[in-house]
Design brief:
The chain has 406 residues and is mainly alpha-helical. It has 16 helices and no strands. Helix content is 77%, strand content 0%. α5 packs antiparallel against α7, α8 runs antiparallel to α9 and α13 crosses α15.
């Protein structure tokens, strides 16, 4: 069968072009603002447990509510982007989330704080739900893996800033100022995203409804990728949710500002994400995913000893492996999906953030019953499930282009 190229392939941004540089910068800023907002309460969980008198598992709801709400919103938001356009949905979403973030420091109670976090999660859904589809639409396939990796790198630095800034400011001025400063920074980054993002050149409006979702779910390869996203994020959020409690307790007994520095490990993902994406473009995705899972498992095991340098090195390796696997798996979804790429990516994100919400809270039960060894065991089981799901994944075959939507 003769395979034809998409008719708009020449319009897509190629490696080294000025347009691709703008796309990379804009999506980098989008990742920064989204993940600064999404995880701004994670470093504060021990503080908020003490201030509001709640358990570690209850305090972790401030992360789980936002990620769970985001998971529920990504699919309808992605469908909206198929009709209204990628850029419009991403920009409105990021501005709304930034404004909601400014309300967090004004919250007088834990339930209201949780409610605002849930609303913020819904608003934030527009960026991750659409960004991967935007890249798949606008970036030439030869450069897609690297572009996806740079977007994920922006996510990692955003997640890092969303943990470090509140941790530092809390010691100086309290948790309310910490959340306020983080929200103000997210708003500035949103304005930069707005200014940098190039308009869509290859987007074609489509009516992507239930049939498109069912088509993606019938693809066994996409189902395996969705499972990989779920278990990856469940284990990752569990490790970072409860590591702070371990470092504050004996035998470490670290101060809160120093405990917040653990999120510097996110810088490992800043380098491993684009490197893994580019490597996958050259040698294939499955071997890179396997290597990333193995790296994460080795790093987890190294966090077991009560020796701070060894545990820090293990956490660095675990983080690099996680972001490498996520970068390749998320890019693989866009390459594999036939039509309705925003919905295909949204299903991945539904599983990914569903894993964060449900898996992160379940990890709290492991921590409360067996402390850190049980937490590591729980995360290792999740990695093993992901590695089994990747075993039968294959590279997508070239397909004929879809006819343009009416």
């Amino acid at each position: 069968m003769l395979v034809t190229s998409p008719p708009d392939l020449d319009l897509r941004h190629r490696r080294g072009s000025r347009g691709l540089r703008r796309v990379n910068l804009a999506l980098f800023a989008a990742g920064l603002t989204t993940f600064m907002s999404l995880y701004s309460t994670q470093a504060l969980l021990p503080v908020l447990s003490r201030v509001f008198g709640v358990s570690p598992t209850a305090s972790s709801l401030l992360v789980s509510l936002s990620t769970g709400a985001l998971a529920l919103a990504v699919i309808p938001v992605s469908s909206l982007s198929e009709r209204l356009g990628r850029t419009r949905v991403m920009l409105v979403s990021s501005v709304t989330a930034a404004v909601l973030g400014l309300l967090l420091p004004l919250s007088p109670s834990f339930p209201l704080l949780g409610l605002i976090r849930a609303a913020q999660g819904i608003a934030l859904a527009g960026v991750p739900a659409v960004a991967m589809a935007y890249l798949a639409d606008e970036v030439h396939p030869e450069a897609l893996g690297g572009a996806m990796g740079r977007y994920i790198a922006g996510n990692t630095i955003g997640g890092l800033l969303g943990r470090l800034i509140p941790g530092f400011v809390t010691d100086l001025a309290g948790w309310r100022w910490a959340l306020g400063v983080t929200a103000a920074g997210a708003l500035l980054l949103t304005l930069a995203f707005w200014a940098l993002l190039p308009p869509s050149r290859c987007f074609r409006p489509a009516r992507a409804g239930q049939g498109s979702l069912l088509r993606h779910l019938r693809d066994p390869g996409l189902r395996r990728l969705y499972l990989i996203g779920l278990v990856l994020m469940a284990g990752f959020v569990t490790v970072y949710n409860y590591l702070g409690y371990r470092l504050l307790a004996a035998p470490f007994g670290l101060p809160e500002w120093l405990t917040g520095l653990v999120f510097l490990m996110y810088l490992a993902g800043t380098f491993s994400s684009p490197a893994a994406g580019s490597l996958a473009d050259r040698i294939g995705r499955r071997p890179v995913v396997y290597g990333a899972f193995a790296l994460a498992a080795v790093g987890l095991l190294a966090t077991l000893p009560d020796t701070l340098p060894v545990m820090g090195a293990g956490l660095l390796v675990f983080t690099a492996g996680f972001f490498a696997a996520h970068s390749v798996a998320s890019g693989w979804v866009g390459r594999r999906a036939v039509g309705g790429k925003a919905q295909a990516s949204a299903l991945y994100l539904f599983a990914y953030y569903g894993g964060s919400s449900l898996g992160g809270s379940a990890g709290g039960l492991a921590y409360e019953h067996g402390r850190w060894p049980a937490t590591v065991g729980y995360a290792l089981v999740l990695l093993a499930i992901g590695a089994l799901a990747a075993r039968r994944l294959t590279e997508p075959a070239a397909r004929p282009a879809e006819p343009p939507a009416a």
